[in-house]
Amino acid sequence: MKNTKIEVKDLSLYYGEKQALKNISLEIPRNKVTALIGPSGCGKSTFLRCINRMNDLIPSVKITGEMLVEGIDIYDKNVDVVNIRKKIGMVFQKSNPFPKSIYENVAYGPKINGINNKTELDEIVETSLRQAAIWDELKDRLDDSAMGLSGGQQQRLCIARTLAVSPDIILMDEPASALDPISTSKIEELVHELKEQYTIIIVTHNMQQAARTSDYTAFFYLGELIELGKTNTIFTKPEQKQTEDYITGRFG
Amino acid sequence: MNSQFPINQNFTKESLKKQFRLSEFLAEKIISSIAFLSITIIILIFFFVFKESLPIFHFGKSEKAKTEVSSESMPESYGSTSVEDLKPESYGSEPKEDLKPEAYGEPVSQSDLKPESYGEPVSQSDLKPESYGEPVSQTDLKPETYGDVVVEPLTETTTKDSSISEENQHQDKVAENNEGTDQTWSTFLTTEWVPVSNNPRFGLIGLLIGTIKVTIIAMLIAGPLAILAALYTSCFASKRKKEIIKPIIEMLAAFPSVVIGFFALIVLATFFQNIFGYDSRLNAFIGGVAMALAAIPIIYTISEDALSAVPKTYTEASLALGASKWQTAFFVTLPAATPGIFAALLLGIGRVFGETMIALMATGNAALLSSNPFESVRTFAATIGAEMAETVFGETHYSVLFFIGSLLFIFSFVLNAVAEFYVKGKLIKKFQGK
Ligand SMILES: Nc1ncnc2c1ncn2[C@@H]1O[C@H](COP(=O)(O)OP(=O)(O)O)[C@@H](O)[C@H]1O
Ligand SMILES: [Mg+2]
User: Fold this and answer.
1) Structural domain contains residue A53
2) Which residues of A touch B (CB under 8 A)?
3) Ligand 1 pocket mutation pick from A15, A22, A44, A63 by most atoms within 8 angstroms of CB
4) A138 in any annotated domain
5) ABC transporter domain location, by residue (chain A) (predicted)?
6) Interface confidence (ipTM) of the complex
7) CB neighbours of residue B309 within 10 Å
8) Band of pLDDT at residue A2, cut at 50, 70 and 90
9) Which of helix, strand or coil describes residue A221?
10) Residues forming beta bridges with residue A201, ordered by sequence position
11) Interval B177-191: pLDDT, tens
12) Enclosing domain of residue A187
């Protein structure tokens, strides 16, 4: 796989005594959508949170191995975690807009990066909301609280908020799992458009969603990476028996 | 139908019939009646306080009689020497002293007056026919004074003094007749608080300014400190640190205010005097610092709860955007906890506003008009605390103190109402969108 964005070497993660990720090694390509699938509790979210070091927030977590982004080990002592997260954005399973106005939600990222010019901020907010395909719905109510939006709108607002800090990589943890079919398809379309500019890693429960949106698919099982390959291949003729069983719905 | 559980619920009219659940019914009734009771008690307290202050709202004759009674009973209360000892500061400023030389000059002779006027009711009746209505109640009220002054035989001096006092009483009477009950009222908006004199003045402005000054100083100190401390424990401190710090500060909330007052009186006053070099050792600043000590634990505890209640998902979202820890704390967690922190500040203000013991011990208790934070002040609550024990039931001074009590009540009520319905809404809008 040429044009590798992220390279993971022998990564293990422990929650206290319990090992949640077991010697994961994989490569994630640039400007593609990679889907992580697998049954609940297999460590998909845990792995995703390793990529932008969100697991640092959990005191009991211990990580071994290497996580190279553009060839740089992000777990190196000299790497600043804040700067990592600026380049690697994250959209959470449960939409979590700030209890602020819609405008402030999107402008928050740029503001903490030192952009205070109103016209500049306006532009960033509009561009980000347009990219997240939600500008037309929200442009007249930018001062309203984000908490009053529907679940689908909130999630797209969260995507816009992530885009506003112009990351390289966007991590999405089951972004559509709590949404209705229409909102889900909007998010999927969005993912499709965004991969032009960003490297996207998306965790999903939903086989069809993985098949529809992703270029590559990784199958996790019990904290191990079973298989990673082109989505087409994984869904038509997977190499591993376990993958086939899972995809055909025989377990999971 | 599954019968694996002993619960057998059939969909029949019988089983779905409305049931009367006695325990739930009782529990509900008990809860509501207790709630109702506590609300009633709060209201009753207010009405009692207010009721005691009512006489000053009475205009016309009855009030006249009251004022005179009080002017008459004033010297009585002077007879007991304790009055002077208890609040020397309020008499400290000179102009006040000038105003009541008679009262101050010869306390002994004044106490002598009483047996006099007691012995010769005729002369008294000449002077004040109206006061005749309640001579009995008067004697009932202050039996101790009479007990003390059994020594009657000082005939010569008494006559002299009585002639002076007769003149005074004459003057008083004239003044009262001219101004009527408005006298009490009109003095409210003045600055002099001289409740115990032949010409009592109840200027509330000085007290009001004192109260506000101390409150502002205390809140300027306590607010930022407590909120920053709360922010630290909820956002930065490790779990173990938090488990140690929080209970300790919460224990401080139950610290007796008399101890804090004592500490301020002995330690803080000297300490800050050495730093700032002001003249009056006890002043608004010292009082403010001491009250801040009392208010910090309250503000801290409640804001800490509010900050900890902010969902972790907000923090995560902010961190995932590349915000640092303190940016997250200041720009996400703090605004999200606005309502709770606001409530904490209000409670803090309430505590400072009504704090009596610390005010009494650390503020100097002189109702001066000044914007200088290093001048002595006298607060509403301290005034009540200091003087209530020495007033005579039913007298104007007594009523005015209760009126001040009502004012405290009303102030905090208005403050809370405005904060709740106006400021809070605005703040929330500002920080959290419409
Ligand atoms: N904060 C945590 N502390 C301890 N164990 C955790 C924590 N988060 C997840 N786990 C455990 O790690 C395993 C993987 O969880 P997760 O990554 O959330 O799975 P997935 O997202 O694939 O459903 C699960 O067994 C879960 O119980
Ligand atoms: Mg998950």
Assistant:
1) yes
2) 52, 54, 57, 59, 82-87, 89-90, 92, 94, 96-102, 104, 108-109, 111-113, 143-147, 158, 161-162, 165
3) A15
4) no
5) 6-247
6) 0.92
7) 11
8) low
9) strand
10) A34, A171
11) 444 455 566 667 677
12) 4-97+171-248
